[in-house]
Amino acid sequence: xxxxxxxxxxxxxxxxxxxxxxxxxxxxxxxxxxxxxxxxxxxxxxxxxxxxxxxxxxxxxxxxxxxxxxxxxxxxxxxxxxxxxxxxxxxxxxxxxxxxxxxxxxxxxxxxxxxxxxxxxxxxxxxxxxxxxxxxxxxxxxxxxxxxxxxxxxxxxxxxxxxxxxxxxxxxxxxxxxxxxxxxxxxxxxxxxxxxxxxxxxxxxxxxxxxxxxxxxxxxxxxxxxxxxxxxxxxxxxxxxxxxxxxxxxxxxxxxxxxxxxxxxxxxxxxxxxxxxxxxxxxxxxxxxxxxxxxxxxxxxxxxxxxxxxxxxxxxxxxxxxxxxxxxxxxxxxxxxxxxxxxxxxxxxxxxxxxxxxxxxxxxxxxxxxxxxxxxxxxxxxxxxxxxxxxxxxxxxxxxxxxxxxxxxxxxxxxxxxxxxxxxxxxxxxxxxxxxxxxxxxxxxxxxxxxxxxxxxxxxxxxxxxxxxxxxxxxxxxxxxxxxxxxxxxxxxxxxxxxxxxxxxxxxxxxxxxxxxxxxxxxxxxxxxxxxxxxxxxxxxxxxxxxxxxxxxxxxxxxxxxxxxxxxxxxxxxxxxxxxxxxxxxxxxxxxxxxxxxxxxxxxxxxxxxxxxxxxxxxxx
Length: 621
What we know:
This is Acetolactate synthase. Its cofactor is Mg(2+); thiamine diphosphate. The protein is α/β, with parallel strands linked by helices and 621 residues long. Helix 2 (44-54) packs parallel to helix 8 (176-188), helix 4 packs across helix 19 and helix 17 (411-422) packs across helix 18 (434-442). Residues 5-31 and 33-37 have low confidence and may be disordered.
C-alpha cells in the first residue's frame, strides 16, 4: 500500500451600502457628483448597470436573451463592470461561485427569462447549500404579460424560493437600486448565500431616476454576530476540563475568514481538529493537531476521534449526514458545543448542549480569553492519553492506496503529484465523485482559500466553470480544475469562454472511463453489475470523445498521460503553459476506489479502512 499525506428582531439599518464590506467603495466621486446635481434620469436598464457599479461589481458572468436584452445595451458602456460571455447559464452560475471563493466578493451572474433562468437553478441551489455569496439577475417578461404563459416565461421567483437566501420580482423601475443594494447586503451578510433578482423587461424599458440608497432598512433581518457571553464561558469551561475534546470545523470558518483565530484556538486548547470537506485548508494540514477530514471518506483518525470524544466543539459545521453517518450513533458520549451564525443549523440534526449563535470570528475571539482564564484557574487539561490514542490511529491507519494491476495510472498518485508540484498557493477546484474525494485526501492544503468544491449539492459539472471564475477572481494564482471524465463532459464548453477571454486554467481529467463513484458503489453493493457507468472515454481502442482533440477544438492545449514515468513531466508542462487553458487526460485505473469509507446510513463505528478491513475499536479501547 502506498501511503498518502496525511421572532421578529429589531429593525436593521445598514449604511452606506455601495460595495461589499471587504471591498473599497468604487463610488465616492460619482456619488458626490450625484448628490450635487440630483438624481440621474435613466432607463430601468441603465439603473441596473449603475446599481452594479455602485455595488462594487467588477465581473458579471452571463448570457443575453430577449428579456434581459435591454440591460445588455448599457452594460456595454460600463467602464468598471466586465462581462464575460459564458456558453451555458449553469456555467455562469458556477463561475460566479468560483469567483466568490477566490476573491472574497459577491459573485454575479446574469441570464434571460424562462430557460435562461431555469438553467441557473442548479448553480443557485449549489451556492445555497455551500453558503456562497451570489447575486443572480434574471430578465422576466413584461409586467403585463406575467402569468399569461408568455413566450419564455417561467416563475423563477417561485422556482427558486426554496433554494435562495432571498429573492425579488421587480416590476417598477424605481425599485431597482434599492432592490439590488438589498440583494448584495443579504448575499454577503450573516450566513452568506444566493439572492435572485428577477426584473421585468417593462421595468428595464421604463424611464426612472437613479438614486443609490444611502442606507438599507430591512425590518426582520438582523443577523446575530455577537455571541452570548454566558454560552462562551460554558464552552471555555468544557474545553478546559474535557479529556477527549475534538474541534469539528466546518466551512463556516472559511466563510467568516476566521482561520487565523482557529489556529490560535487550536494551539491554546491542545485539542485535535477535524476539517470537513468544505473546510479543507481552514487549518494547515501540516499542523500536528490536524487529523484530516471526517466522514464517509474521512481519515480513520478523524472519524474515530469524533466517535470516542467526550466533547465536540462544532464551529460552522452542519452535522451533515456525510459526516455523521447514522446520526443516532454519532459521537454517542460527547457533550456538544455548536457555534454557527445561522440559528436554524443549531440543533437541526444533533442536539447542542451549548448553542452559540454568532459570527465565528467573534465567537473565537471571545472564547480565547475565556479559555486562557480557565487555564489560569484550573491549569491545562491532561490530554496525553487522548493524544497517544489519536497518534496510534494515525500511525496504524494512514491514508494510502494500492497500485493498480491493470497497467493504468493510480489516480491518487496523479492527484498527489499535482498538489506537490503546483504547491499550496494554487487553487484546486474539484468536480464531484471519486476524484473529488481523492483531491480532498491527497492534496495538502495549507491555506483556507485553496480548495473549491461542490460539497452540499454534489454537482457534476461544477469544476471547469468554477475554476474559470476562481481564476478571474485571483489571476495571480495557478488554478487547477480536477475533474472526472463524466463531470468534464457536462460543462467543458466553458473552455471556449476560457480561451476567448484568456483565462488560462489547468484541467486534469482523471479519466477512468467511468462514472467512478457510481461504479464503486456497484462494485461494493450491487455485485459488480455495472449498469450504465461505462463512458468509453479512455479504456479500449476508441475514445468517445478524445479529450486531447476536444481541447484542441476549443483552442486549448491538450495533453495525455498514460504512464507513471510521465506524470511529473506532464504536470510541469501544463504549468509552463500560461497563455491559454490546458487539458490533461490522465488515463487511470477504473478499479481504483476511495478508502476509507463509511457506507451510507451506517454507523461511523463501522468505517472500513480498505475493503474488508475495519478497525476493531473495542480491542483498541
